[in-house]
Amino acid sequence: MAAGPSQLFLLADHIKLSLLERQRAISLNLEPNSQDGHISRSLESMREGIEAVEKERVRLEQSGDASSVTLKDQESRLRTQYDDLTSQFRGFPTSTASASLSHPNNPSLAADFAHATSTPQRPRNPSSSSFLKRSPATNNSKSVRFSDAPSTSADDDAARDALFPAAYRDDPDAPPDHSQLDNQQIHEYHSQVLQDQDEQLDRLGESIGRQRELSIQIGDELDGHVQLLDEVDEHMDRHQTRIDGARKRLGTVARKAKDNVQLTIILVLIVILVLLIIILKR
Q1: Which of 58, 80, 174, 255 has its CA 20 to 30 A from that of 42?
Q2: Residue 134 CB-density burial (10 A; 0-12 exposed, 13-18 middle, 19+ buried)
Q3: How far apart are CA 181 and CA 84, in angstroms?
Q4: CB 84 within 8 A of CB 97
């Protein structure tokens, strides 16, 4: 079913919003190509819809319908917006493209257009700005002290625990150390493990059930094919029997024909011999 002018105007508004979001992404130095495929398909759908509207307008004009005037005006507006959106998408905006891009066809989308056309605030990097604004005179010199005896203070232990909260393990999925857990925590951990195993077994059971049903269906299909092959084999046997009988009958006819030829030759020779005897006696 072809889209009407109202649907095409709504599609044009969605394309405008996508183009505005694309411009915001470019202004924020983001990748703008994520919606290019969607915008291209939407423009293609809009072009096909305009062609359908044009065909409908021609049909109404030929039938003398007065609504063709309104449809012609809508078609003209749609074509203008399509040209502006296409030029904006391809990077060659026209003089009317910016105005068309910022004004929705549907007034209810004015808030969305206002948000999409708002100038985005670029995030500032406080660390880089502070380094740029920092005076060289205020830079404190840093030095590193080495000691033969490592410090074992509580502050060092706390800093080390903050940097390395968990001990390294070769197997990340291995069970945690239960020495630091109370009975309630150990019980909860094992209950969670059993619950996860039950869920995995349930999924495995469902998969096995589906495989069983599929195997049963394959077996039924194979039984049907075997039955068909048996019927074909029976038909082949019957036809082979008929062919053998016909071959035997042909052999009998051939032998009889051969015997008849020999008898005919003998009769002809006898007649010729009689004729020769009669002729020689005269």
Answers
A1: 58
A2: exposed
A3: 67
A4: yes
Backbone φ and ψ for 146, nearest 5 degrees, come out as -110, 140
Distance CA 32, CA 19 (A): 10
d(CA 25, CA 87): 18
In order, the DSSP letters of 35-58 are: GHHHHHHHHHHHHHHHHHHHHHHH
Question: Residue 125 in 3-state DSSP?
Answer: coil
Query: What would the mean pLDDT of 242-253 be, rounded to a whole number?
Result: 88
CA–CA distance, 20 with 18 (Å, rounded to integer): 5
Q: Which amino acid is present at 33?
A: N
**pLDDT tens digit sequence for 103-150:** 788 777 777 777 777 655 544 444 444 434 444 444 444 444 444 555
Q: What are 226's two structure tokens?
A: 């075997």
Give this prediction's pTM: 0.40
Rounded Cα distance between 118 and 123, Å, is 15
pLDDT tens by residue, 97-108: 666 777 788 777
From the list 30, 33, 36, 23, the residue with the least C-alpha distance to 115 is 23
* Helix %, strand %, coil % of the chain (to 5): 75, 0, 25
DSSP code of residue 109: G
Alpha-carbon span 195 to 207, nearest angstrom: 18
Residue that the structure tokens 């094992």 belong to: 190
Phi (first) and psi of residue 121, to 5 degrees? -90, 125
Structure tokens at 275: 């004729």
